[in-house]
Design brief:
Belongs to the class-I aminoacyl-tRNA synthetase family. The protein is of the alpha/beta class and 588 residues long. The chain is built from 22 helices and 16 strands.
Length: 588
């Protein structure tokens, strides 16, 4: 033991609960579908326990807990021989001592005045008391209004490590004592471990206090917490080294919203969560992005903007307006499906992608030329579309980041006086409200984004950070030309190009860098007069010589006499792929 004391076991009579029938009922409830356990990977554990259950020892020799309502009977009558603790005939139970006294009087056939009771000093197992929780909190066994209204519940959310200890006991006792399941569904979350997958332990110094993640703490502050613990000197030093290794600069302030979002996003890992503070910090940066983007958008709406009481497509929306509404509708579908399936990573991914990669990176950038134009009608349509995206996007995110979304929601103008005063009491977006999915526009825009990324990649290769170049898009067929032509204003904006031209026949001007965007489109970026040709040729020559060295090294390795016999097949396949890749780069 930690205190170095010698602990010797002492045989003592214990109280048991017979569980075979209760276990059979609990197993049957899951098999019949009356009780659903999520994820289903835990069903094997459930049936293993329930189908092989043994009697449950509920006695605990502790100073705290619910004292077992069992009384040892001593009868002051010569006709009744004295009993022993181990003889169950001399024990009675009752909700009160008076009830136990009346029961003993009936059992032994003597008057109550001749009976002495001694209550057992043992307390109930914690899990027995906890198993009564779903109905005892509503006044059971009294049949009152609270019990009838609030019991049984719908969903239990808890950790998978106490599936048998608590969940099974609640199910068994609920069925036995009330005749009803305490809930219809059980969602089991993962156990949080450190970034290395180790169980959190004070002696390792890897325990992460959520409050420290929320508010931040220095390395010295983490060390100070160890000083207030009950670790001995050697354990304290080991814990300090662990903290210094994992958090050399302490834990940065991440905020509540970022922590909530990260924990929900982490649940895809299954049984365990390897919690990395750096990932939580990444979601704090996402909060900053969200704040700045909404602030910019509100400025774009203008001081006197009044959203429509109910947004409706007018038919005058631009391609980019229709696209962002389609992406919002898609995100709504993904989120609702995720909630139905308890797939929280799918929800957080859908929301993150919509806000960061679609609304911020694409739509807001495409709105800048619109808001700077003199087309009042286009500006009004885009403002209504933008407001709808802000409102819907914040409502999608609200369950995961309640604080920042509430703050931003309060800064948005209201559609009407009937709009709920807080985002936490608004309806969650559904497909009936957001029904603007357009697969054709989504597909075309996905192709256009591939073109834009190819142009950006070329610009980065030639270090064109501020210089705008002319772009010529050579298309395979007339259909592709038509699609690209529709999106030219957005390609020009998002790729920082001077001009963008799409054509099928003919050749681009001389002096272009070439990159393949897809099998239907080739990007030609006019670099003549924008870069130092000799410098670029020198860079390419150096790169070519490096590729040659790598190819020669691989050929030398693979041509050895014992290569095929000694080198594992997987390594040989990897080397072959490397050669093909290097040769393709060399040919380019």
């Amino acid at each position: 033991s930690r205190s170095k004391d010698i602990v010797e076991p002492l045989m003592k009579p214990q109280w048991y609960v017979r569980c075979d029938e209760m276990g059979r009922q609990a197993a049957e409830a899951v098999r019949s579908g009356e009780l659903k356990i999520i994820p289903e990977a835990h069903l094997k554990t459930w049936f293993n326990w329930m189908d092989n259950i043994r009697d449950w020892c509920i006695s605990r020799q502790l100073w705290w807990g619910h004292r077992i309502p069992a009384y040892f009977v001593t009868v002051n009558d010569p006709s009744v021989p004295p009993g022993e603790d181990t003889d169950g005939k001399y024990w009675v139970s009752g909700r009160s001592e008076n009830e136990a006294l009346q029961k003993a009087s009936r059992v032994f056939g003597v008057s109550e005045v001749k009976i002495s009771l001694r209550r057992d000093e043992d307390v109930l197992d914690t899990w027995f008391s906890s198993g009564l929780f779903p109905f005892s909190i509503f006044g059971w066994p009294n049949q009152n209004e609270d019990l009838q209204v609030f019991y049984p519940g719908t969903l239990l959310e808890t950790g998978h490590d106490i599936l048998f200890f608590w969940v099974a006991r609640m199910v068994m006792l609920g069925l036995k004592l009330t005749g009803k399941l305490p809930f219809k569904e059980v969602y089991l979350h993962a156990v949080v471990r450190d970034a290395h997958g180790r169980k959190m332990s004070k002696s390792l110094g890897n325990v992460i206090d959520p409050l420290d993640v929320i508010t931040g703490i220095s390395l010295e502050g983490l060390h100070a917490q160890l000083a207030d613990s009950n670790l001995d000197q050697a354990e304290t030093e080991r814990a300090k080294q662990g903290q210094k290794s994992d958090y050399p600069n302490g834990i940065p302030e991440c905020g509540t919203d970022a922590l909530r979002f990260a924990l929900c996003a982490y649940t895809s890992q299954g049984r365990d969560i390897n919690l990395d503070v750096n990932r939580i910090l990444g979601y704090r940066h996402f909060c900053n992005k969200l704040w700045n983007a909404t602030k910019f958008a509100i400025r774009g709406l203008g001081d006197h903007f009044k959203p429509e009481p109910q947004f409706q497509i007018t038919g005058q929306e631009s391609l980019i307006d229709c696209w962002i509404l389609s992406r919002l509708s898609h995100a709504v579908v993904l989120c609702n499906t995720g909630f139905q399936n308890y797939d929280f990573p799918a929800i957080t991914t859908a929301i993150y992608n919509f806000w960061l990669y679609e609304l911020c990176d694409v739509y807001l950038e495409c709105l800048k030329p619109v808001f700077n134009s003199n087309d009042a009608r286009a500006i009004l349509i885009s403002r209504n579309t933008l407001y709808t995206c802000l409102d819907g996007g914040l409502r999608l995110l609200s369950p995961f980041m309640p604080f920042v979304t509430e703050e931003l929601f309060q800064r948005l103008p209201r559609r009407s006086e009937q709009t709920p005063p807080s985002i936490c009491v608004t309806t969650y977006p559904d497909s009936a409200e957001f029904s603007w999915r357009n697969d054709d526009i989504d597909r075309n825009m996905e192709f256009i984004m591939t073109v834009i990324k190819t142009i950006r990649s070329l610009r980065a290769d030639y270090n064109l950070t501020k210089t705008k170049a002319d772009c010529y898009l050579q298309c395979l067929d007339s259909e592709t030309v038509a699609i690209v032509t529709q999106f030219i204003p957005y390609i020009q904006t998002l790729s920082s190009s001077n001009t963008v031209s799409a054509f099928k026949d003919g050749e681009p001007p001389a002096g272009c860098a070439v990159a393949i965007a897809s099998d239907k489109c080739t990007v030609n970026l006019l670099l003549k007069g924008l870069i130092d040709a000799e410098k670029e040729i020198s860079k390419l020559t150096t790169k070519k010589s490096e590729l040659l060295k790598q190819i020669e090294k691989l050929h030398e390795r693979t041509s050895k006499a014992d290569y095929k016999e000694k080198v594992p097949q997987k390594v040989q396949e990897g080397d072959s792929e490397k050669v093909k890749l290097l040769l393709s780069l060399f040919s380019v």
